[in-house]
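Q: I'm building a small set of examples for a reading group on sequence design. Run inverse folding on the following structure and report the sequence directly after it, with nothing in between.
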């Protein structure tokens, strides 16, 4: 029996501190673990040896600063996590382990008008197919991260009425997927998960304060403050698409006029070009044509960049992030859209905030949200999940009850 302040409880706490540090970082040298946890080098060495003997961590030789070092990561056998991303026109699923390695990934088209039941049926089937593909026992699945294109009500857990996917408002996505798969599910909106994905694996690595701006069918932002996603008390922080640019502008789906989204989102931008480029035009095609030199498409991309830059400038004045990462289909335009964003930031942001800001595209592309869903599970799961009750070894998580 462990009592507060006892040697056994202190030892258990130290074990969890080391596991937590490694889990969040993916891999760390023993020196980095000591700096992160505040434990002595000797204590870290003893704990790492114990965890290695129990099969919880793996240790490999590496170098740091020109010196030999030992890199510590969670064992590939310690369990797997799953990321599911529902988009406006796609479903993407990724499977990874606790060492931050992506083991399998697949995407398929999703009919935007499909019912939520059909969407979850297909997600369940794809998860089952990928887990079987990598040959991992189903009872190794520790948790699932789920991304949806709309705000999640913090109190009820339901999808808000402004969700882009029609017919999905009011459902509880966490509850639905957890019942189907039989494991804990952590859910967030797609912009927050894009921010997490870029923070852990992409263009946001090494940065503590950033905003991930996703411009696609809608416009949203994932905010990272001091290394953590900021959601706000109601879970709606980051709705940059509903900053008012023109109070006499077009009516937005939120009911207001002249929101940033009405000047930048695909549903409002594409009609500007469909008369000259055909009704089947997509935002991806607009970006492709702009890169090839089409004058109309280049003008539209430039205008969108300026509008987005105005929203980014407001964000800079309020939060002073050090980096803006642009995601969504618009990001493929590269400097064609980044240059006007920077121009607007330089014009409207406080000079000191603008000087400290770097604006770049995400490096993960369409994978950002699914990988962010993996990162969400890795950040939210408890450390006791990978520690046996005696502080060593691997505890088997709940079995997935129904795969297709």
């Amino acid at each position: 029996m462990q009592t507060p302040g006892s040697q056994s409880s202190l030892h258990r706490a130290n074990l969890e501190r080391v596991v937590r540090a490694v889990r969040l970082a993916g891999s760390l040298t023993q020196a980095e673990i000591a700096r992160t946890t505040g434990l002595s080098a000797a204590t870290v060495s003893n704990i790492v040896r114990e965890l290695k003997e129990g099969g919880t961590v793996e240790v490999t030789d590496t170098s740091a600063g020109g010196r030999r070092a030992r890199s510590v990561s969670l064992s590939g056998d310690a369990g797997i996590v799953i990321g599911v991303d529902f988009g406006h026109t796609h479903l993407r699923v990724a499977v990874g382990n606790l060492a931050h390695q992506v083991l399998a990934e697949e995407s398929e088209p999703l009919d935007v008008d499909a019912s939520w039941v059909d969407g979850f049926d297909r997600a369940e089937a794809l998860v089952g197919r990928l887990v079987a593909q990598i040959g991992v026992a189903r009872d190794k699945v520790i948790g699932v991260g789920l991304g949806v294109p709309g705000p999640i009500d913090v109190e009820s857990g339901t999808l808000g009425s402004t969700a882009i996917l029609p017919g999905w408002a009011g459902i509880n996505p966490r509850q639905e997927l957890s019942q189907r798969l039989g494991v804990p599910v952590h859910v967030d909106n797609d912009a927050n998960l894009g921010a997490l994905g870029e923070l852990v694996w992409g263009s946001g690595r090494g940065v503590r304060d950033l905003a991930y701006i996703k411009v696609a069918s809608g416009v949203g932002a994932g905010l990272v403050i001091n290394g953590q996603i900021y959601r706000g008390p109601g879970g709606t922080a980051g709705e940059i698409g509903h900053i008012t640019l023109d109070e006499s502008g077009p009516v937005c789906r939120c009911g207001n006029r002249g929101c940033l989204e009405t000047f930048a989102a695909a549903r409002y931008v594409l009609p500007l070009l469909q008369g000259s480029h055909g009704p089947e035009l997509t935002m991806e095609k607009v970006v492709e044509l702009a890169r090839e030199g089409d004058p109309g498409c280049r003008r539209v991309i430039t205008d969108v960049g300026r509008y987005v830059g105005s929203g980014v400038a407001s964000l800079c004045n309020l939060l002073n992030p050090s980096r803006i990462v642009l995601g969504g289909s618009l990001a493929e335009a590269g400097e064609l859209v980044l240059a006007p964003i920077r121009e607007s930031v330089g014009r409207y942001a406080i000079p000191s905030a603008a000087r400290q800001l770097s604006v770049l595209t995400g490096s993960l592309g369409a994978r950002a949200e699914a990988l962010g869903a993996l990162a969400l599970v890795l950040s939210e799961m408890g450390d006791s999940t990978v520690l046996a009750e005696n502080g060593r070894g691997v505890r088997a998580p709940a079995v997935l009850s129904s795969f297709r």
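The first helix runs from residue 7 to 25.
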